[in-house]
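Q: What residues go here?
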């Protein structure tokens, strides 16, 4: 990891190229087009090309679900069940109800909350399997009242789905799992094929192909967000154990080579200690090759002058995960304007949120925490406004509406009101 100042960090960010990945977009759009035209035939073809697997069918069979249960440990199942309890409890508080008001005589206004009809959940595969993603995406959808939930996830080399993902799906009552990855899975969800049923919304993280595919199908179908590489920002002072900070930075660097691990501190002594700990711990980890590439490209320790500068920088970065490993962290939360999830203290590491605490781990990345929120129950409902006026109530409002409509030159709008007013006065 490099140790730099705030000024150096900002300068390096200004030098990052913003050129669009045209080649990637061309590939993704071609995949989408072929899935739209050829349906299942394209899905089988792309699975063979990208996953190097020849499938007999695109859906997971009941036999495969049953066999998966025998391939996981009781410890995993126990942990999964407890995580489910915690995640469900947290998201219960996000449920919204329809509401109505009658503040004026003859006037009823309100909002009707309706669950989406169908959702497709993308669960990444490849470098790792993520049963936690099943829980984090399915639980809020179910609490919202979504009836049709299906999952797409890439097959393993032998044509099966990772058993931990299948057990998580079964635990959630999701029995439609497609052996599909990449942009082709997103296209199948968006437009439907002979096997894959079209959905209203697509959620879940994925690689660059998945992210760009979600961008291109948006509008024909809803999406949760366009997620970039995982990222963590740890704010540390002299009270933070360097070994803890290093371990947390590495927990994100192991996701993939593009993951960003950033530490901000006002102490040069702490910065050097964290740097040394990162090198020592990284050498012992299973995914050290991925970690090293991530750290070489994006690993950064930034030394700031004071906490004011620190939190200004935090809000500019708008990190996906923010850890405040500082004295009295709860008192400093007010200074944070932009962050996907905020972890307070030395004993609230980011993996706690990834798996177990309860808040959702599907979070805005790449600075989008400046305007976006974590995935929640609210992402799986739509809202309709309710308006009811009695004849007398409309009579009272009519002159104002006619005036506003005529001001905008929309005389047919004015006539729609006037004709009722005239009829009432007849």
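A:
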């Amino acid at each position: 990891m490099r140790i730099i100042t705030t000024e150096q960090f900002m300068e390096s960010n200004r030098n990052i190229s913003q050129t669009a990945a045209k080649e990637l977009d061309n590939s993704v759009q071609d995949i989408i087009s072929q899935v739209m035209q050829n349906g299942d035939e394209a899905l089988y073809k792309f699975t063979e090309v990208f996953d190097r697997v020849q499938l007999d069918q695109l859906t997971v069979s009941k036999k495969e679900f049953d066999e998966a249960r025998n391939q996981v440990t009781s410890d995993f199942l126990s942990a999964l069940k407890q995580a489910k309890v915690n995640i469900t409890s947290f998201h219960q508080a996000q449920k919204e109800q329809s509401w109505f008001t009658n503040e004026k005589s003859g006037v009823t206004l309100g909002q009707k909350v309706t669950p989406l009809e169908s959702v497709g959940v993308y669960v990444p595969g490849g470098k790792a399997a993520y049963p936690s993603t099943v829980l984090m995406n399915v639980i809020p959808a179910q609490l919202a009242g979504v009836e049709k939930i299906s999952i797409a996830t890439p097959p393993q080399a032998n044509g099966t789905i990772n058993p931990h993902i299948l057990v998580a799906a079964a635990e959630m009552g999701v029995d439609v799992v497609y052996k599909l990855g990449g942009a082709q899975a997103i296209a199948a969800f968006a437009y439907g094929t002979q096997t894959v049923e079209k959905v209203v919304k697509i959620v879940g993280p994925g690689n660059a192909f998945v992210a760009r595919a979600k961008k291109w199908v948006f509008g024909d179908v809803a999406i949760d967000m366009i997620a970039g590489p995982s990222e963590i920002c740890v704010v540390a002072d002299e009270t933070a154990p360097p070994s803890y900070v290093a371990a947390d930075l590495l927990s994100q660097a192991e996701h993939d080579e593009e993951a960003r691990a950033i530490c901000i501190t006002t102490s040069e002594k702490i910065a050097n200690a964290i740097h040394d700990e990162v090198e020592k711990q990284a050498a012992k980890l299973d995914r050290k090759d991925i970690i090293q590439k991530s750290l070489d490209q994006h690993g950064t320790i930034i030394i700031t002058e004071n906490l004011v500068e620190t939190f200004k920088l935090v809000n500019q970065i708008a990190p996906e995960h923010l850890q405040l490993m500082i004295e009295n962290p709860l008192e400093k939360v007010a200074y944070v304007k932009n962050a996907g999830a905020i972890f307070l203290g030395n004993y609230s590491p980011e993996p706690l949120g990834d798996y177990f605490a309860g808040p959702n781990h599907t979070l805005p990345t790449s600075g989008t925490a400046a305007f976006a929120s974590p995935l929640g129950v609210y992402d799986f409902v739509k809202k309709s406004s309710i308006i009811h006026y009695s004849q007398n109530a409309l009579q009272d409002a009519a002159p104002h509406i006619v005036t506003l409509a005529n001001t905008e030159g929309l005389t047919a709008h004015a006539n729609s009101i006037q004709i009722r007013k005239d009829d009432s006065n007849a």
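A: Context that may help when evaluating the design: The longest helix spans residues 74-92. Confidence is low (pLDDT under 50) at residues 16-20.
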